[in-house]
Write a structure and sequence with these properties.
The protein is an all-beta fold. The protein contains no helices and 26 strands. The chain has a single domain, classed as Neuraminidase (6 Propeller). The chain has a four-stranded antiparallel sheet with strand order 3-2-1-26, with no helix packed on it. The protein has a four-stranded antiparallel sheet with strand order 4-5-6-7, with no helix packed on it. Strand 4 and strand 5 form a beta hairpin. The two termini are 29 Å apart.
């Protein structure tokens, strides 16, 4: 269940092989244990790791992989952590049973040290919610539902509201705010969509090269770039890409024979953490945005996914 694919693409796209793809880099032969550095390493990384009882809990660690600290101990699997802009709280996904005794994924919030945990919504939501993303002012948490509807939670009340414009409900995956709080980017097949975070009007589209579909887009700290995981529709595997928020300069950043997923920017925009199954089990890696060797973070051989840098 922890292997990430792009089979959820919204459209069927023709495949393109590396021999015809100018974005294809040389094969990745990096030493996964080498700790790379491009200036000081800033921030902390929240992530989900398999621990006691074989369930996954939320942990935090330093940007070099040291100082791993377990924050949750619930019996359920927890994943997709997201820091509030002030780094005081972490939202994440936890299973929750509704009034009809049906289990859905819902959004739980706690302080950054693991204390004061609580559900965002006072009562369980009737649909599963995925991949929380805080608005910079902390008032909203964007999500997407199991039905691929974009929505957000009002943090003050826990009310779930649709992300919809006059044209109707937006469909897609992984909505994420830009640093100003004025834009939201989300994925949808071979296109990245950018909408106004208040009116939800469509601002722009970034159409990717034929055959490339996307997931987990996120703005860089300066709002000028977007990182995402991209792969060929209906085929296993994905790589990490970066593209300008204006649609220019598409670059493949991290590649392996396996699947790369869930890119997250460091506070200074110089590093990206991501998940990868390039070894026998999903692990977390970090790479320089300018290119270079990758570093594996955390103990080898223990499942770890969903990296999220603090701001």
């Amino acid at each position: 269940m922890y292997r990430y694919t792009l089979a959820i693409a919204l459209m069927t796209l023709a495949a393109c092989d590396d021999s015809e793809n100018p974005l294809a880099p040389a094969g990745d032969t990096s030493d996964e244990t080498q700790l790379l550095q491009n200036g000081p390493l800033l921030g902390k990384i929240a992530f989900s790791m398999r621990g006691v009882g074989n369930q996954t809990d939320i942990y935090v660690m330093n940007a070099d992989g040291t100082g791993q600290t377990r924050l949750t101990t619930a019996p359920e699997n927890e994943f997709s952590p997201a820091w509030s802009q002030d780094n005081k709280q972490i939202a994440f996904v936890r299973p929750r049973t509704d009034g009809a005794n049906v289990v859905h994924q819902d959004i739980f919030v706690m302080d950054a040290n693991g204390s004061n945990g609580h559900w965002v919504s006072p009562t369980p939501n009737s649909v599963s919610l995925n991949d929380p993303s805080w608005s910079p002012d902390g008032s909203r948490i964007a999500v997407w539902t199991a039905g691929q509807d974009l929505a957000y939670l009002e943090v003050a009340t826990g009310e779930l509201k649709p992300i919809a414009s006059s044209l109707g409900q937006f469909k897609g995956f992984y909505p994420s705010y830009d640093p100003s709080g004025q834009k939201i980017v989300f994925g949808g097949g071979g296109t990245l969509f950018i909408i106004d975070a208040n009116s939800f009007g469509l601002l722009s589209k970034i159409v990717l090269p034929p055959g490339l579909v996307n997931q987990h887009p996120s703005f860089s700290p300066d709002g000028q770039k977007i990182a995402f995981a991209g792969g060929v529709a209906h085929e296993p595997g994905a790589d990490i890409y970066v593209v300008g928020a204006n649609g220019t300069g598409l670059t493949r950043l991290a590649s392996s024979p396996g699947t790369e997923s869930e890119p997250s920017w460091s506070p200074d925009g110089n590093q990206i953490a991501f998940g990868s199954d390039r070894s026998d089990v999903d692990q977390i890696y970090r790479t320089n945005v300018g290119g270079g060797r990758r570093a594996r973070l955390g103990p080898k051989g223990i499942l770890a996914v969903s990296p999220a840098y603090s701001h």
